[in-house]
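=== Structure Prediction Worksheet ===
Name of assembly: unnamed complex
Input type: mixed (protein and possibly other molecules)
Chain count: two
Listed entries:
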Amino acid sequence: MRAVWMVLSRRIAGQFAFLLVIAGHNPRKDRSINDRLYLVYIIVFFSIWIFSVLTLFASWAVKLLTLFGQQNPAQTAGNVMLLALGAASAVKLWQAASTSPFVFSEEDALLLCQTPVSRRVVAILWFFHRWMISVLPFAVLAIVLGFAQVEIQANRDLGFLDLPLYIGAGIKALFAMAAAYLLAMAFIWLFGILRIRTDHDIPRYRWVAIAIIAIFAALSQSNSQAFSFLLAPLRLVLEAGMGAGSYFNALLLTILSSIVVLGLLWFFAERLNLSRAAQETAYVQQMQAAVWLGDADAMAHIRIKRKLGSSHAATKLPIRAGSYAIYWRILLRNLRGQLLQNVFNFALVLMVTVIVFMAPDLGSLVLILAIWVLQLGQRAANRMRSELKNWWLWTQLPFNLHQEMAWQIFPAALLLIVLTILVMLLVLVSIPPILFIILPIAVILVIEAGIFDVIRGVSAHSEMLIVEAIPGFTIIGTLVGMALLILPFWFYLQPLTIRSYVSIGGWGIIEIGLMWLWIVQLWKKRK
Amino acid sequence: MNPILKAEAISRYFDKFRALAPTDLTLFSGEITVLQGPNGAGKSTLLQCLGGLIRPSTGKMTICGFDLYQEEREAKRHLAYVPDVPRFYQEMTAWEHMQFMAAAHNVLADYAQRAERLMRNFGLWDARDLFPHNYSRGMRLKLGLLLTFIRPFDALILDEPTSALDEDSTRNLAEYLHALRAEGKAILLASHHNQWIEQLADRSLQIQNGVIQAV
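=== Predicted Assembly ===
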């Protein structure tokens, strides 16, 4: 027990310390009175901030509950929570039929899975650790709905003196949801644990999960007694948490039910196969670690690795000698990587590009242009980052930055321009001829701004290339992109004459050329 | 012997730390030069500077007369470098990497036969359709070497090429390096493998605290 607790408690302490470090307090270093006062300040600040946000959400929830649940808002709120809990439980039950609900890191695999520690202790401690973390979104939902009940029942403007009402309702709803979630999660883990007690898979276990989900779904559509009985420990407590029904009796029923299911979990956990659980959850664990650190690159890497599997037959994509190979590589990587996400991102950029030229006034145009520069600039920067991340391979290719940039900019820009014009033709039927001048110029300038931002970061610290720490798109890139668009769009907004065409085209080409040379010079002079 | 790679007064600082003192070094065609030194002596920094992976803080480098930073494209045609742990494109298989490298260097003609021969010789043929992130460290190193051997070059820089190779592969690599020397390539490699060094080296260099000395 002590060994398992030591492993888990250190992890919890590490996670807690990580959150505090993000907030600006390092518990391992900051020990002075000032530091402790700052810690108190952080706690007070975030408490007030979280409370404010939750009351804001509650005011929206009041509108929805009074709209959809005029008869009985408390019961409607209870049903909303039951629905959310039911949907999440169905997904988790389905996952538990094929992947262990226990998630172990590599360290856990070494420290726990290979040692004769009590499997029951591991099961219970890991269960409560996961429960504490995964209950959070449901807790937020419960507190918001609890606050909403206070506002509905008060039927007047509430002030600071009504704070105890909010706190009381929030705690009541929170405990109700925590208990209900405990029961649901204990059942799911019990279901998962039964599968990973041996090295062998239980045949058709997924069908068992489907059957359980189907039974609950079917019963929920009827007003049968069986359904009421089966769901009573969940439904009663959630409704009571919103003020409908006897709270303590419902809470007691849910807690007793949870104790029974947890007892079964304890009983069956004796033969829990920890090694198998560790093998099954390697991906989930890596992903959780990446999400926890907010490391988008690591998340993408893990996702692509999983998608690709171990092997692939050689591509049929035709390849030609010379710098065309750069484009072959870009195409292949895009097709094999996160294709759906790439398509979605491109569609988003396309949509904003179309909106830019439909802006009704100057204010809207500036706002949409800023969003467009952010979107398109970021995509261009990400592509350049992705190539520079393979720095060793980059150095082995007989290409210079001119060639790399040309293949990164022109095919993507051409596709975006053609599709934008097609979409505009569909929407507007006819499009102003000036668009054929300003659109290519604006697209290329913004892509250049994205590439510029990455090269700017790299040129100051080229040693970052070795460790694959390539900077991303920043506010400077956005500002450069916006600045580059000032001249072309200034002429675009003037009364259109032949001079406008010449000015936009001429200035655009000059800006593209100067920007191109600036990027190449930065690259050549990297330190 | 013709000078292939010339480095004049190259040095590298990381902030105030001097990883490499100002160094002059010339690699000649048909010569294998071995670089030795304890861990942290500056071997990898020197090789990365020569290979174009890190820009030296001072000095100038030319390969076959082309400046590595001003005439990047021409210089890179003649220079090859293989790190001790190569990294690859995540979405491309080993075979596609070979295909891409051959296309990039304009040597697509009969590349399939050459790639197959190389992969069979180094034991990667059966794993050609695997993504390199599924490779062991030794296999990655071999693929890194093969990506170099599939393309033309005049100067080859290898950072601890035997660090993850088994005995047969090490012997195989030695044979390749002998053949490359006979073709007039200039080769510089860092290694701790003494027996191998004695067998291969035409010239040995010792590096200590970022300062290079001929042995």
